[in-house]
Amino acid sequence: MNIKTLKQFLALAETLNFGRASDECHISISALSRNIRHLEDELGVALFNRDNRTVVLTKEGQTFLKYARDTSRQWNLIRHELTDNSDQLSGEISLYGSVTASYSFLYELLRRFRIAYPAIEIKLRTGDPEHAIAHILDGKEDITIAARPANLPRGLAFKPIAISPLLFIAPLEQQVPNVPTHTPITTQEWATIPMILSESGVSRTRVDEWFRQHDIAPRIYAQVTGNEAIVSMVSLGFGIGVVPKIVLDNSPLVDRIKVLDVKPELEPYDIGLFTLKKSLKNPLVDAFWNLMKEGA
């Protein structure tokens, strides 16, 4: 077993696709398949179940994945410590955030980071921000950007970037009779309106609590993944939604949306960076983390 094989395993475990993993590792599919087989033979267990259509981690593969991530992280640390005799940091860090976060925050952060540390490679992945903390805890990413939950998991570090109000939004023009463009007043009126909400996460937790406090049983029309999808469905007149202002500000559909003046207001989003506290011992992660302090 060597570090290259571990990195190939990690690429396949994260993509679950031999084609994409082989491209990421710059080797052929047959070479990747052969190396994974050798690794499985060395361990004495199957790490993946695969057929002509799917690749899935086995239970043993999921256990080995945690080891592989930790080992890869430690390898990067010790290699930097032993071989770097200059003042310039080099290596690779991974970041994860939503498309909106990339537009609003990461662009400027990455621009400054690239100027300050040109030898550090940045691997950026975008996706649902509700998965950001899980990606950190699972070791998939070094740093993520998302909204701070009410209770921060143990071992997680958080650095605030900005505050974004959480807004009730409606279509600019009424397209369906029971989807108003004005702010609902009575409990009965709220209960008849189709709501388009996030499946889970900070936004869903806060809007559910808001409805409970007002003794309203909301009519849930759709539960979606991603705030951008909520804006899209609301603009088409399917219902009223709840999204952070930062999402609306960056949406191409902002001119088709009306913000409702709902009182009391929802608790705003506290947006920031997340990483494991132990990851701050990594000089590359620490450099990105402290760049926020310098730019504050």
UniProtKB/TrEMBL annotation:
<dbReference type="InterPro" id="IPR000847">
    <property type="entry name" value="LysR_HTH_N"/>
</dbReference>
<dbReference type="Pfam" id="PF00126">
    <property type="entry name" value="HTH_1"/>
</dbReference>
<dbReference type="InterPro" id="IPR037404">
    <property type="entry name" value="IlvY_PBP2"/>
</dbReference>
<comment type="similarity">
    <text>Belongs to the LysR transcriptional regulatory family.</text>
</comment>
<dbReference type="InterPro" id="IPR005119">
    <property type="entry name" value="LysR_subst-bd"/>
</dbReference>
<feature type="domain" description="HTH lysR-type">
    <location>
        <begin position="1"/>
        <end position="58"/>
    </location>
</feature>
<protein>
    <submittedName>
        <fullName>HTH-type transcriptional activator IlvY</fullName>
    </submittedName>
</protein>
<keyword id="KW-0804">Transcription</keyword>
<keyword id="KW-0805">Transcription regulation</keyword>
<dbReference type="GO" id="GO:0000976">
    <property type="term" value="F:transcription cis-regulatory region binding"/>
</dbReference>
<keyword id="KW-0238">DNA-binding</keyword>
<dbReference type="GO" id="GO:0003700">
    <property type="term" value="F:DNA-binding transcription factor activity"/>
</dbReference>
<dbReference type="Pfam" id="PF03466">
    <property type="entry name" value="LysR_substrate"/>
</dbReference>
<dbReference type="InterPro" id="IPR036390">
    <property type="entry name" value="WH_DNA-bd_sf"/>
</dbReference>
<dbReference type="InterPro" id="IPR036388">
    <property type="entry name" value="WH-like_DNA-bd_sf"/>
</dbReference>
